[in-house]
């Protein structure tokens, strides 16, 4: 079981399906391969992030001034370096992508910030995104962990089909 560093520096255990710990509702339905990929997103070189979906609501803040300096280049680098549907060609014409259209049309709701802990090199940004076809449906729940110092994206997840 991986170690998770809390705000006080105490160790606690991290998320694990196999050891009967309860994963959040957003990831409990994942098959074992997808769940393993999800756990990898939470693991940074020697540091285990908490499951963003399990962090208490009161710990999230609507404070843009706390956000790290995430820029297009940070997002581009993340998408190119991780397996997925994005290629250099599609990212070159990013304005034609569905994700950009959803953002531009106002489907991205309030982005919330979580510092993880004062010692953590990363923070987590989280937002709900309304579906393109029906704003009545339950929105997608997304998060991205980014390095506080320079805005590099270390991991991201969405409850949509692409994950």
Can you put this structure into words, describing what you see?
By secondary structure, the protein is an alpha+beta fold. Helices cover 22% and strands 21% of the residues. It is built from 5 helices and 8 strands, in the order E-E-H-H-E-E-H-H-H-E-E-E-E. A 4-stranded antiparallel sheet has the order 5-6-7-8, with helices on one face. It has a two-stranded antiparallel sheet with strand order 1-2. A hairpin with a 7-residue loop joins strand 5 and strand 6 (122-129). It is globular and about 40 Å long. Mean pLDDT is 77; it is low at 1-21.
Using only C-alpha atoms, the radius of gyration works out to 16 Å
Helix count, per DSSP? 5
Strand and helix order: EEHHEEHHHEEEE
**Portion of residues in helices?**
10-25%
Give the distance, in angstroms, between the N- and C-terminal Cα atoms.
24 Å
Category from helices, strands and their pairing: alpha+beta
Low-confidence stretches: 1-21
Please name the defining characteristics of this protein.
163 residues; alpha+beta; 4-stranded antiparallel sheet; globular; disordered N terminus
What is the topological layout?
Layout: E1 3-5, E2 11-13, H1 25-28, H2 32-41, E3 43-44, E4 47-48, H3 72-81, H4 88-92, H5 98-104, E5 112-114, E6 122-129, E7 140-147, E8 153-158
Antiparallel strand pairs: 1-2, 3-4, 5-6, 6-7, 7-8
Short structural summary:
With about 160 residues, the chain is α+β, with helices and mostly antiparallel strands. It is about 20% helix and about 20% strand.
């Amino acid at each position: 079981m991986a170690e998770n560093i809390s705000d006080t520096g105490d160790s606690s255990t991290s998320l694990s399906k196999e050891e009967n710990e309860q994963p959040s509702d957003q990831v409990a339905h994942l098959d074992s391969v997808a769940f393993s990929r999800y756990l990898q997103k939470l693991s940074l070189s020697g540091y285990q992030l908490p499951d963003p979906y399990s962090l208490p609501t009161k710990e999230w803040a609507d404070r843009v001034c706390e956000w790290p300096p995430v820029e297009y280049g940070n997002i581009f680098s993340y998408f190119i370096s991780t397996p997925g549907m994005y290629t250099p060609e599609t990212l070159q014409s990013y304005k034609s992508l569905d994700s950009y259209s959803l953002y531009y049309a106002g489907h991205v709701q309030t982005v919330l910030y979580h510092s993880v802990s004062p010692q953590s090199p990363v923070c987590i940004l989280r937002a709900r995104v309304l579906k393109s076809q029906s704003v009545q449906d339950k929105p997608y729940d997304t998060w991205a962990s980014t390095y506080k110092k320079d805005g590099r994206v270390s991991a991201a997840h969405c409850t949509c089909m692409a994950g």
